[in-house]
Amino acid sequence: SKTTAADLPADIPPLLTANHNGDPTKRLLRDYRTTNADNEERVGLAGLIQAGTSKVDDLITSKKLAYLVSNLQLGDDLVASLRSSQLEELNKFVTKFNHNKNLENQFSLIAPLSAKYGDDAVARTLVELERNADTLTPTKTNLVKKLRSEQLTDWQKNGKSVDDVFNLLKLKGDGFKLLHSRKFQVLEDYITMFNREKSADETLVKVLSTGFDGDGNLVALLERAKTNVRLFNKANELETALLTKWRSDNLPMMSVWSRLKFSDKVDEALSSGKLSMFSKYVSSNYPNTKKNEAMKDFATKLQAWQLEGWLASQKSADDVFNLLKIKEDGYYLRFMRKPFIFLHAIHTTTL
């Protein structure tokens, strides 16, 4: 028989990302409870699917679906929820409803999962299950693929930028380990989709630089990632991409230096990989005819920066002597520039 509005609770809340007659529904962020057992029976999933949706008004159907999803039993275990028969039945209903509808008018099956577990947990789990598809039934494998695709589409429909998705996935908190994260693959997939749909030119290295608050922090992160064998190649790939970006932006040498945001600590400049990265940029971007002049100017600024750092930390002449390891150089001392730096430092620190 035809389903009417009387079959439904009057105060069913809107839930899914869809658009019906110009009135977009929204995700449900709280559970809906009812004590009417007759209503629950009338809107049972099996009966609704059997009846089909072709003769049911879209608005009424959307309220039914909202009611069903609000009563979906989602426990603390996302994997268990994905394997549940309830979600499988709901998927069948959503598939029927979405058939031949425009994207903006379709229901989102991913919405209740994201509301319950968070975008980051859902993304990580779906990629993990997709990589271990041999442990799933064919039906569950298809469901996981559908949800993976739907999550990206849902973000795009809701106007999420690539930077928004970086934050939704909580990648910053993963540090350099993000390069091996399941969520990292999701970010890459979304960038690809975003560029295709928006005719944009977003790049992974640009998103990471923004997400980690600048090129300097990204370079330091990539340097730490290189200490992990599994991450070494990916870190090198991103480092090369960053160098390429600087070259395409035609950045002057000192602009790169500024972007790297060196601290006053010389040791940090070396261990963070920033000085090495700067050297690579200069070596690859400046012709030999200009390199000597450019490096001479840079060396002067670097020496001044080093001396300023010693002054700021109140290093004495003895401290500088030890820092430069002059005593260890012995005979070779006279062939090196260290004595000149040392004398300059003594003069500066005693003014």
Characterise this structure:
It comes from Phytophthora aleatoria. This is RxLR effector protein. The chain folds into four domains: 1-109, no CATH class; 118-202, no CATH class; 211-297, no CATH class; 314-351, no CATH class. With 351 residues, the protein is mostly helical. The chain is elongated, with a radius of gyration of 30 Å. The chain has 20 helices and two strands. A two-stranded antiparallel ribbon has the order 1-2.
Pairing-aware structural class of the strands and helices? Answer: mainly alpha
**Rg over alpha carbons:** 30 Å
Low-confidence stretches: 1-56, 323-351
Q: Biggest sheet: strands, sense, closure?
A: 2 strands, antiparallel
- Could you tell me the mean pLDDT? 74
Secondary-structure element order, N to C: EEHHHHHHHHHHHHHHHHHHHH
- Shape by Cα distribution: elongated
Helix content: 55-70%
Give the count of structural domains.
4
Strand content: under 5%
Major sheet strand order = 1-2
Distance between the termini: 97 Å
The total strand number stands at 2
Protein name: RxLR effector protein
Organism: Phytophthora aleatoria
Summed up:
Helix content is 63%, strand content 2%.
Properties at a glance:
351 residues; mainly alpha; 4 domains; 63% helix; elongated; disordered N terminus
Helices and strands, with pairings:
Layout: E1 18-20, E2 23-25, H1 37-42, H2 45-51, H3 58-70, H4 78-82, H5 85-98, H6 110-117, H7 119-131, H8 138-157, H9 162-168, H10 182-198, H11 204-211, H12 215-225, H13 232-248, H14 253-260, H15 266-271, H16 274-285, H17 288-312, H18 317-323, H19 326-329, H20 338-349
Antiparallel strand pairs: 1-2
Protein name: RxLR effector protein
